Amino acid sequence: MAVLQQEMTLGEAADQLARALPGHRVEILQGRLTVTPPSDGSHALSLTKLGRALDRAGLVEAGYEYVQGVGLWLPTLPEDFAIPDFSVVDLDFRDAHVTKNYYAPNVFRMVVEVTSSNWADDLGPKVECYAQAGLPAYLVADRKHDEVLLYTDPVDGKYPDPLRCKRGQTVPLPESVGVALDLSVDTLLDGDD
Question: What per-residue confidence (pLDDT) applies to 1?
């Protein structure tokens, strides 16, 4: 008996993988399906401490909010989307819903990635995708290379060279975030104070 098989779209494959691998982050970057395992403790603490610092700086009072793991629709290819570790967004970001759990890039003020086993995606395709989406700021806590990179103000779909900060230094948040704050590189990399 012949079995008729229907080819899956990339989006359908992503949905199927997300269901099959709970806790993993499934994304489509530049037409390529990527899967990231769950975060480790230092990764999670880095994001928690970033949120606390933004609370102390008055982010909500400035008219913004922060969220973790919210989908970002990418205009690079029809099915492209990312799920940044952490994002600073407009308070009304939910009004910019595009499809599924993805929101339009114009409501994102800054996205943050803390590298893990897929560090090459955070330092390559995501830099390109986020710049093409016009995100005003992209902060990468690059644990592989022990530094923090801050990309800002893309021009013609490309970020200029990033600000590179090493251990013992602080990284200043750009104006697009809405609050003045210098973040410890060590805390972003390790989750320690």
Answer: 55
